[in-house]
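Deliverable D2.4 — example input (structure tokens):
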């Protein structure tokens, strides 16, 4: 998890500090690709019998059933 945090911090730093919009987009995109690849690899270790796609779909399905969203707003 610590490595995932550092990858996300690098993306945020690129977003904040790179002044050229095209260069910033490229740096953020490359960083997000690294974040996704690492998260995907972690999910395969934690849940080897289910694909990461299936895990995400299960989470989204369960969250749709919840009566309240973030901030206490009723859906």
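Example output (designed residues):
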């Amino acid at each position: 998890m610590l490595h995932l945090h550092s990858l996300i911090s690098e993306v945020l730093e690129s977003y904040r500090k790179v002044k050229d919009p095209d260069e910033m987009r490229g740096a953020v995109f490359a960083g997000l690709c690294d974040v996704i690849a690492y998260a995907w690899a972690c999910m395969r270790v934690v849940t080897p019998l289910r694909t990461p796609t299936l895990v995400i779909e299960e989470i989204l399905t369960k969250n749709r059933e919840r009566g309240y969203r973030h901030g206490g707003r009723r859906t």
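The chain has a mean pLDDT of 87.
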